[in-house]
Predict the structure of MarR family transcriptional regulator.
Amino acid sequence: MPNATPATAHNALLLDQQLCFALYSSSLAMTKLYKPLLEPLGLTYPQYLVLLVLWEGDGGMVSELGERLYLDSGTLTPLLKRMQTAGWLHRQRDSEDERRVRVYLTEAGRQLRAQAAAIPACVLEHSQCGLQELQALTQQIQQLRSRLAAPLTAAS
């Protein structure tokens, strides 16, 4: 830490000064907010995220889904199996390369979209932010995620 005085070094270690804790605790609060919104649909938060991606474009590869959601195959595969058992999607080996698996929504999975349509408005209301403020905050967090995910260079 350049030019850190003992006082600033001490303050830098306070919990409320930690970006990681602000993001972590906000994530917990967000997941808690979604729970009662998703329960009537029979969905968990990770299942909802999978459906959001599939509602944007059906038939993608499992690997692409994992990249989009920042989930590894060890987490994603059991999640997709549970969703297939629930009847919301099916997985199918790619005809050109059997090592790849595509994910398709079932009719029940497509119908969940209409049932979930009110969720974003509920989240907006609970956030007590205006739409533009929430969109700007989302964009800032996405930019931070991109920077954090970028490989470290020798100059860092």
User: Anything to note?
Assistant: The radius of gyration is 20 Å.
